[in-house]
Amino acid sequence: MIVSREKKKKKPSRYTTFIVIMSLIFTIMIIKLIYIQIYKHEDYQDQANTTATKFISEKAPRGIIYDQNGNILATNTQTYAMTYTSTTEADTAFYKTVDGFLEILAQTGESVQDELILQLNDKNEPYLNFKGTTSSAQEAEEIRFKRDRGLNEDIEEELYGTDIEDLSDTQISAVNEELLKISSKDVFYYLVKSYDLISLINPEPTEENSTEYEEKLKEYKAKVKQYDAMTDEEITSILAETYSYSQLRNYMMIKDAIKMQSFKGFKSVTLAKNIEENTAFIIYQKLNDLPGIDVTREPTRTYPYGVLASSAIGYISSIDKTNEELYDLRGYDASTDLIGVAGIESAFEDQLKGVKGGTTVKVNSKGRVTETLFELESYPGSNVHLTIDKNVQYAAEQALADTMAEIRTNSDGGNTFSGANRGAVVAVEVNTGRVLASVSYPNYDPNIFAVSGQLTTAQNQQYFSPDLDTFGTNLINSKGLNKTVDELFPMSDGIRTDPNDLYPRSFYNYATQGFVQPGSTFKPMTALAGIESGAIDATTTIEDKGIFNEHSDVFGKDFGPKCWIYAQSHGNHGTIGVEKALEVSCNYYFYEVAFRLYQQAGSSTEALDSLAKYAWRFGLGTDPDGEQKPSTGIEIEENFGQVYNFKSFKNKSIVYAKFEIRDFLEAGVYNNGTNFVPVDYSDSEDDSENLKEAKTALKAKITDRFNAIGIGDEESNPDEYAKIILDDVKKILELSPKYEENVKSYESSGKGTVDIDAQAKIVARVIATYVTSDKRTEILSPAQEVYAAIGQSINAFTPMQLAQYISTLSNGGTRYKLHYVDKVTDPDGELIKEYIPEVLDKIEIKDSTLQAIKNGMSKVNNDEDGTASTAWDGFPTSIQTAGKTGTADFGDGEKQYEVGRAPFATYISFAPVDNPEIAVVTVVYDGGHGGYVAPVARAVYEAYFKERILQSDPNYASKSPSFQKYVVGVKPDNKINK
C-alpha cells in the first residue's frame, strides 16, 4: 500500500541568507563607488580641492644674542618666502607656473632655493656636488641621494627579483656598490624620465569638449606608451632639442623638492627664501597666474655685524641628513628647520630655539587659503647675553687681520712669512673669567648660512671642499718649495689631507681648537715653578754660556740645546737673574731652572713631573692620573692641550716607537750602522695564521716592555732582553714568504750567504737595543723637561688655555672658569639663568715670586731690550702693561720651511701690571716672531681702556694710529662688516 505524503517546504539556511545579504551590500557599495569615482568624479574632486585642509607651519623666532653692553649680535628679521602647494590645478599648470616665478626672480635678482646636489658644470655636464669632504662621507651621501630617488629599485629587482622583501646587509652592500657605479649623467637622465619631464612636450589634455578631448587623450596615451619604451637618455635627447639642460634641471630641481617634501606629508614646499619685499609684491600681484604659489612671512636669522665674533657666535644651517631621525624625535622638521651648528648658536640651541606655531586652513584648487580653522601662536626662543664686548672684539679682529698682512711682507734670514694667514686672539677679564674677545682668523659671515640653499657653488667648495690641488700648486710656486702637491697634501680615503696644517680653515676655531707650542710664553710658568719649589729664588743668577752642556750625562758634551742668541750670533746673555731672563727671553736660564727642579725633586721618574705639577693648576694640561676635567670651562667646543709630563710623553713615545721599529726593521738598517736582511714586520692579510701569531707575540712583548718603563723592574740589558724575544723573531723569519724573498735579494746583491739563526740574533739585538736602551733612555731622560721649560717638547695648548694661564698668573693664582655667557633671559627680559664667576683652583703664590715675574714681563714691554718693546712706544704710562713673546718652531728647525711652514708667533700680556684687569693672548701661525703680534694686544687695550686713556691724554688719538683706526671710529651702533 502506497502512502502519499506532502513534501515539506525547505527553509533557507543561515549561510544562504548571509550570502544574499552580503551580496546586496557589496552591490550597493560598488554602485556607489562607480557613482562617486566615475559619474561624480569631477564634482567631488573640485569639492575636495576647494575644501582641502593643510597646516601652515609658523617658525618661531630664535632668541637674540647680545654682547655685554646690549648690542645685538644675532637677531631675526621678517622676510618673505615663496611656497608651492601641490593641487590638481597647480600640477596641471606646473611648467607655466615655474617659468612664471623663475622669470620674476630673474628680473628682481633673486634665486630659487637650490638644494639638489645634482648640478651642472660650466659645460652643462651633470655632476654631484657633495657636502662631505671625505671619500666615505661622499659615498654615503651619494648612496642616500640615489636611494631617496628610487635608483635602487631596478637594481634590487635585477639582482634579487621582485619577490624579495627584506634584504640582508650583504645584499644591501651589493646594491650600494651598483648604485655608486651609476654616473651623474645617467642620474640626470633617470630623473628626467622619473619626474615625467616629457610632459613638457606631451602634456596630458584637459577636457574642453568631449569629441576633441577623446582624440587628444588617445593621441596622448599613444605617445606615453611610445616614450615609456624609450631609454632615459633617449627621452632627455628629445627634450634637449627644445629645452636646455639648465631649464630641464630647474624643473627637475623643483619636482625633486616636492617629492622629498612629500615624504613628510601634505605640506607646502618652500621654493625661495629671504626674498625682497618688492619681489614678494610682484608675486602677490601675479598669484592668479601662478596656481600653487603663495608668499608667506617668516623670521630669518640675521647677524648685524657680519663676520664680527663669528667663531664664537657660530651660525645656523639645515639639519644634516645623517641626523634627521634624531631631530625628528626632538620635534624638529628636519626638512625645513635650521639649527645651530657651531659656537653659541649650537651650544645654546635648546635655549635659543623657540616654540613653533602654525595655522590649520582650508585651501582651494589653486592652493589659496579659503578659511582659517585653527591658530597656534609661536613663541620666541630665550635670549643669550654674552660676555663679549663688541668694540674690544672689533679692535682685536681688525688689528689681527692688519698685523698678519704686515707680517706677510716680513722676512728673517731669507725666510719669509707669507703663510701668516691663520691666527687667534683671546681677551679675558682676569678676575672673573669672562671672555671679552674671541677671534679666529680666517672668519666667515654667518649671514650666508642663515638661508638654506643660498650658498653658491664657489662658497660651498671654499668652506666644505677646498681645492687643495690648486692651493698646493700656488703655495709651491710662491714659496719655491722643492715639494710636490702629493707630498704636501697626500691622498687618504680618496681625499687630499693636510698633515702640515697649511690651508686656512674658516670653520676651524683657532682660538679654542688650534694647538700651538707656546714657546717662550711658557717661561713665566717655569720661573714660578722654580721659585715656588725653592729650586731658585727671585734673586738667583745663572750664567748663560750659550750651549747648555753643563750636565753632559743628560745631553752630552757637544749636543746640548742652545740659547737663541747663541744660535743666532754665537753670543750669550751673560750672568742674569729671573727678571732679566724674562725680559730678553734667555733659553739657557730656564734650561737650568728646569734641571734644578728635576734634581730637587729627587732625579726620579716622579721628578720628571716637577714642572707639570705647577702647570696643571694653571690650566696647561691635566694630570693623566687625576680627575680634573680637561677644559677651560667655555661653553663651546674646544680642544685641550697637554704640558710635558712623564706619562703623556711616554705614551706618545710608545706610539711613535712602534712606527720607528717598523721602519728600521723593514729597511734592514739600524741607526747605529747595523745592517741585516729587511724583516717582514707589518701585518698583512696574506699572512698565515702561524705568522700572524708570531708577529702578534713579538709586538705584545715589545709593548709590555715599553709599558714597564719607569714603573717596574724592566729589563734594561739589551743582551738579556734579546734572549727573551729571540724565538719570536726567528719564527717570523722562518714563516714569512716575504722575508724569504728578501733573503734571495740580499744574497743576489753579493752581500753573502744568509744564516737565519745569525740574522735572528742580529734583529733581536737591534730591537732590544732600541727598546731597552735608546728609547728607554730618551723616555726617562730629564731632557724633555728641560725643553718643556721654554715651551717645547710635547707642550701644546690652545690660545684659550694660554689666556686662562696668564689670567691666573696675573691675578695672583685664582683660576677662573672661562665663559662666554653672562645670562639667559626670556623674550620679556626676565632672568632665566645667570652665570657668575666660578673658581676652579686657588694657587698660593708668594708675593715676591709674583712681583719678580711681573717685573720681568713688564720689562718685556717697556725696557729697551724687551722683546716686545717696539710695539708699546707711546702707550700711556698711566696704564702699565706686561707681556711675553714666544717663537716656537713647527717641526724641526729649518725643515719647517721645506713644507711651507714657519715658527708660530705667540704673545701673552696683561694690564695694568699692579692691578690686572684684562689679559690678552695673540697667536699667528707662521708669524715668525712673537714680537710681531704684540701690536694686536695694544689695540685691544686701547679699546678696553679707551675712556681712561682719553681722560689722561685727550690728544692720544693723534699720537696712535691704531687707536685712531680701531677705536675712535667705532661707535656702538655701527654695522661692522655687514
Automatic annotation (TrEMBL):
The chain crosses the membrane at residues 15-35. The keyword RNA-binding does not apply. It is found in: Cell membrane; Membrane. Pfam families: PBP_dimer, Transpeptidase. It is a single-pass membrane protein. Residues 58-131, 208-372 form the Penicillin-binding protein dimerisation domain. Its EC number is 2.4.1.129. One of its GO terms (biological process) is cell wall organization. GO terms for cellular component: plasma membrane. Residues 423-634, 788-941 form the Penicillin-binding protein transpeptidase domain. Its main location: membrane. SUPFAM superfamilies: beta-lactamase/transpeptidase-like, Penicillin binding protein dimerisation domain. Belongs to the transpeptidase family. This is Peptidoglycan synthase FtsI. The gene is ftsI.
